Automatic annotation (TrEMBL):
Protein name (record): Alpha/beta hydrolase family protein
Keywords: Hydrolase, Signal
InterPro entries in the record: AB_hydrolase_fold, Esterase-like, Mycobacterial_A85_antigen
Organism: Flaviaesturariibacter amylovorans
UniProt keyword tRNA processing, yes or no: no
Domain of life: Bacteria
Signal peptide per UniProt: 1-18
């Protein structure tokens, strides 16, 4: 009987330990509205007073703030394993994480790169240092992760993308929403300026830790290959991986653990920064 009680106690303790998930509303002064956001805290957050590194994790086209926690079932386990706070903001249906030159009320770059972090760092025990912040995402959010990471490299120390839709100058179909944000698709210069390829042409003074990956059967894998090729040409250090998989949640649920490990290692190397 004592052994049964002891086993029950141990199992209860084991299953009680898991990441906590908050859903918060974060106001955007730039856009005059509020959007929801999921914040995943590791188990250790509630058991002490330490501060934690932060990973901003972006959703894809047609997605929403709770996609990651709802569809990547292992994410909470990874948050505990790598002991980071993960923030999943809402990037709307097809924001592309841009400040639109066509729509003055569409300011998702400002929202994700400035307003959301300001809220998180005022409400949670997270480290306010460049070397303790990372941003990544999937598909449209892969574009967002690298685009915002490159554009705000004084704030984020690491950035990544999974199955990233990086070459937005080639995304001309109206249903994807890029032309609504950037105007006539004939204006290739504007499109390129709002892609990671345009950002990579700018002189850089900050060194970002970069990670990209994609499934070999993904219908936009060529965009990841083009980004990898350009980074090599520019001699910009980065991790690049292709593994079995498609443009789907089974791939991203697997891929996110490797991205979080990459960021955990980066945070540990920069613990004093």
């Amino acid at each position: 009987m004592k052994r049964i009680l002891l086993l029950a106690t141990l199992l209860s303790s084991l299953y009680a330990r898991s990441a906590d998930v908050d859903t918060v509303s974060i106001a955007s002064a730039a856009m005059g509205r509020s959007l929801k956001c999921v914040v995943i805290r590791p188990d250790a957050y509630a058991r002490g007073t330490d501060s934690f590194a932060t990973v901003y994790l972006l959703h894809g086209l047609t997605g929403r703030y709770d996609n990651w926690v709802q569809k990547a079932r292992s994410l909470k386990e990874y948050v505990d394993r790598y002991n980071v706070v993960v923030v999943c903001p809402d990037g709307a249906f097809n924001s592309w994480y841009l400040d639109s030159p066509e729509d003055p009320k569409h300011r998702f770059e400002t929202y994700i790169a400035q307003e959301v972090p300001a809220f998180i760092e005022s409400r949670y025990r997270v480290r306010r240092a460049r070397g303790q912040r990372a941003i990544t995402g999937l598909s449209m959010g892969g574009h967002g992760g690298l685009y915002l990471g490159l554009r705000h490299s004084r704030f984020f120390g690491a950035a990544g993308g999974m199955s990233g839709a990086y070459a937005i100058e080639n995304i001309t179909e109206k249903q994807y929403g890029v032309s609504r944000l950037l105007g006539d698709t004939a204006s290739k210069a504007r499109y390129r300026a709002h892609s990671i390829f345009g950002e990579l042409e700018k002189p850089r003074t900050d060194t970002l830790a970069l990670i990209l990956d994609c499934g070999v059967d993904d219908f936009i894998v060529d965009m990841s290959r083009a980004a990898h090729k350009r980074l090599l040409e520019l001699k910009i250090a980065h991790d690049y991986t292709e593994r079995p998989g498609k443009h789907d949640w089974p791939y991203w649920n697997n891929a996110v653990q490797y991205q979080l490990l990459f960021f955990r290692n980066y945070f540990d190397r920069n613990a004093s920064r």
